Amino acid sequence: MPAQSPIRFGLFEVDLEARELRKRGIKLKLQDQPFELLTALLERPGQLVTREQLQARIWAGDTFVDFDRGLNKAVNRIREALGDVAATPRFIETQSKRGYRFIAPINDPQAGSGTHLLRASLLAPPSTSFVPNHFALSQDGTRLAFVAADSSAKEALWVRDLSAATAQRLSDTEGARAPFWRPDGLHIGFFAGGKLKTVDIAGGAVRVLCEARVGVGGAWNANDVILFAPQVAGPLYRVAACGGTPVPVPPVPDEQSSQLHCWPVFLPRSDRFLFFVNRTGPNDLLQNGIYVGSLSSTETHRVSSEIDGNVGVVGDHLIFVAEGGLKAQRFDRERLQLTGQAIPIVQHESASWDSAWMHQGFSVSDHGTIVFQSRFDFARQLVWTDASGNEHGQIRGEYWGPAISPDGRFVAFSSEEFNDGKRYICVHDLERGVTTRVTDGGYEWHPSWSPGGDKIVYDSTEGYTSCTYEIPADGSGSPEMILEPGSISAHMSTDGSVVCARLVRGWPHISVRMPNSAESVNVGPGVELQFFPNGKWLAFTEPGGAGIAVRPFPALRPQMKISAGPAAQSRWSRDGTQLFYIAPDKKLMAVSFDPSSGRAGPPRELFQTRIVRVSIAGFQYDVAPNGRFLINSLPAGSPPLTLLVGIASLFNDWPK
Asked: Which CATH class is domain 381-633?
């Protein structure tokens, strides 16, 4: 690669002329030899730079220097500056006894040449932290609505005027999710407690409009019509901002379909709107992708089959996430199609936090202000924690859904190792500190282990329909689909039975396939299923906020309530004497359990976690044989959101 200055990757830039490494514009201390080594790697991104080449370039004149020691020290200094880890590298990969390779994507120095984006950090109010994904800019870009959690993990809706230094907490908005603005910038819609609600930011009372059991996006137009997605499956609905009976917006999927229409956004000064279609089945009228609909017509038109999740509109451009970064592309409103090339705005900083709903963590104003959450600020960590809440190290990396092997030697997880929006199932050897990828599709998540530890069961959403596969844990064989399409988060028993969740009329149900049976059978509502170690009991989450329950297996009757209220992600201890779960305030709870009698003790609090999400997130922690917990955690402290101003000039500089 020709030497360009500065060279940018993630939040970092290397200025070759000034010989400086900077993070967010702030100079980091890096000595001459480590800087020269980093330069050598950046000149050949993705390629192996051998130890011999590095010695000839950097240490050629140092006859009496211990080269191996000097090289290792220089690499360690670079990793310290970048916050990188040798076992799970994001920037510099070690090729044993051969050399090193720079593996992070490098931003194109020519992209948007001449364009200057203003980038700033937005801090959460004191003693709070932002809840990932749940924030929205007003249409004029002057205010930000966001959900923040206080020190006791209680969440509420806040508003900040971007010209002010402080934010205002809105009363009676506890548990708020997915806020969206009225065009006047004075009212906010949001979901909480299974309802669609609105609030006047000047201090008016919260108004409950209608039922919305989940809430997968809302939009508010100038005629005071609110468009929203109330369920885990089904069509969009419309309702007046003053309340009333919601009306489905055509086209309406068949009631047996698991298809979801979600994340609506109105086009400016129009009754037309964009929305995302997800989880398409073979009999659905619409296919996956971004569509244009209208409140005054039943016709729809697909704009893109390649964009997943929510989009924003800035002038005549759509803003979206693709390949791990924020992009923009010109949108012809007359022909209802995208034209020209996609313009990179921010590359390789968008992590997938919500694959169930394809909710991407950004928001835009009509005039081009953007707020987004950078994967570097919100970097997840797998943290080892004991039963008292003391932390004992971590596994760093962009991982999701940790599952510990039966013998406790390995951890399987879904990994975004290349920062390109793709997910693969990987296995981490805890003794050796080595991670191995075992799948190749790029759409895999929800790993679990077979009882013998020789296979991994996982879901793939390639083709947009979730399917469950099985693969040898060492990656030596090909994946084999083991359940009918539509299965979610499967778990295998010692007798070969497999349970999973399926959407039935838009609601998750327990699906069981017994050994030697060709078909699965639905046995009632439930999700996040976990077999008891000997397979004689089944723990699961009751949908709708009812909490954790246990059933005997295979009889499945009677059902026993475990949690005292809403809860999720139940996990058994390895001896089956305890059942753990996550409470709504992210506390890890425990219940003693007697498998012989089926009796459970009262719930007791263990400790406060920083777990990334509580509900409908897959399992984000597991329990090791030694009783320690591995928890997918948010960073300690309060990571900032990122503000971008000036993308309109980026559009002007980009070739048409």
From this structure: mainly beta
Tokens of 633: 């955690």
Domain-wise residue ranges, the chain = 7-102, 118-377+639-653, 381-633
Q: Which CATH architecture describes the domain 7-102?
A: Orthogonal Bundle (1.10)
Q: CA 315 to CA 460: how far, in whole Å?
A: 36
Contact of 102 with 44, CB cutoff 8 Å: yes
Do the Cβ atoms of 147 and 179 come closer than 8 Å? yes
Question: For each successive 10 residues of the chain (656 residues), what is the average pLDDT?
Answer: 66 86 81 92 87 86 70 91 79 87 71 62 94 95 96 92 93 96 97 96 91 94 96 94 95 87 94 93 88 95 94 94 90 93 85 76 93 88 95 86 96 81 89 89 90 95 84 92 92 95 86 90 92 95 90 88 93 96 95 94 96 85 97 89 85 64
Residue 516 sits at the vertex; the CA angle it makes with 511 and 518, to the nearest 5 degrees, is 55
Which residues, in sequence order, are bridge partners of residue 55?
Answer: none
Sheet holding 547-552, edge to edge: 527-531, 537-542, 547-552, 560-561
Residues shown for the chain? 656
- Tokens representing 243? 């309340």
Angle, vertex CA 426, rays to CA 423 and CA 430, nearest 5: 145
Q: Distance (Å, rounded) from C-alpha 363 to C-alpha 145?
A: 10
What residues have CB less than 8 Å from 166, skipping those under 6 apart?
125, 160
In words, the CATH class of domain 118-377+639-653 is mainly beta
- 0.85 exceeded by pTM: no
Are residues 386 and 628 in contact, defined by beta-carbon separation less than 8 angstroms?
A: yes
